[in-house]
């Protein structure tokens, strides 16, 4: 079974932007919904956004609504999470997975937002 791998994390100042990428090509389970999750230090993993690839419909957690945008490029087999106006509380390891999530998780990508 192939895990989805997130990439694109890094260190950014508060107010900055980052775009995370998730390669969904080769994913053995042809999931229509792909979700972004994050896990901050000492906290449980939470779902923050989801997109339905077939029609582009998306939803967001209140904590990121209006600041994050999820999109998909089905031809390229990619899902993206564009993050704007980042806050220190957005610091976390970010993951992508199907929705509902498959049992195996990728390593995630670390986003650190400095104040």
Summarize the structure.
By secondary structure, the chain is mainly β. Helix content is 0%, strand content 48%. It is globular and about 40 Å long.
Summarize the structure in words.
- With 115 residues, this protein is mostly beta strands.
- It is 0% helix and 48% strand.
- It has a 6-stranded mixed beta sheet, with no helix packed on it. Strands 1-3-8-7 form a 4-stranded antiparallel beta sheet, with no helix packed on it.
- A hairpin with a 6-residue loop joins strand 4 (33-39) and strand 5.
- The radius of gyration is 13 Å and the shape is globular.
- The mean pLDDT is 92.
Topology:
Elements (H helix, E strand, L loop, with lengths): L4 E3 L2 E4 L4 E6 L9 E7 L6 E7 L5 E3 L7 E6 L4 E6 L8 E7 L10 E6 L1
Parallel strand pairs: 2-10
Antiparallel strand pairs: 1-3, 3-8, 4-5, 4-9, 5-6, 7-8, 9-10
List the main descriptive attributes of the protein structure presented here.
single chain, mainly beta, 4-stranded antiparallel β-sheet, 10 strands, 0% helix, globular
Order of helices and strands: EEEEEEEEEE
Contiguous low-pLDDT stretches (5 residues minimum) are none
Q: What is the arithmetic mean of pLDDT?
A: 92
Please state how the strands of the largest beta sheet are arranged side by side: 2-10-9-4-5-6
Give the N-to-C terminal Cα separation. 39 Å
What is the helical fraction, as a range of percent? Answer: under 10%
The total count of helices amounts to 0
Indicate the proportion of strand residues. over 45%
Radius of gyration from the alpha-carbon trace, in angstroms? 13 Å
Give the strand tally: 10
User: Biggest sheet, in brief?
Assistant: 6 strands, mixed
């Amino acid at each position: 079974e192939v895990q989805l791998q997130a990439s694109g994390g890094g260190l950014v100042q508060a107010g900055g932007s980052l775009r995370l990428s998730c390669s969904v090509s080769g994913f053995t389970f042809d999931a229509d919904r792909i979700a972004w999750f994050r896990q901050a230090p000492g906290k449980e993993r939470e779902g923050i956004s989801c997109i339905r690839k077939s029609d582009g419909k998306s939803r967001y957690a209140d904590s990121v609504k209006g600041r994050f945008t999820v999109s998909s490029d089905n031809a390229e087999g990619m899902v993206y999470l564009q993050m704007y106006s980042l806050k220190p509380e957005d610091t976390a390891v970010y993951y992508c997975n199907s929705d509902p999530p498959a049992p195996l998780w990728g390593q995630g990508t670390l986003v650190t937002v400095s104040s």
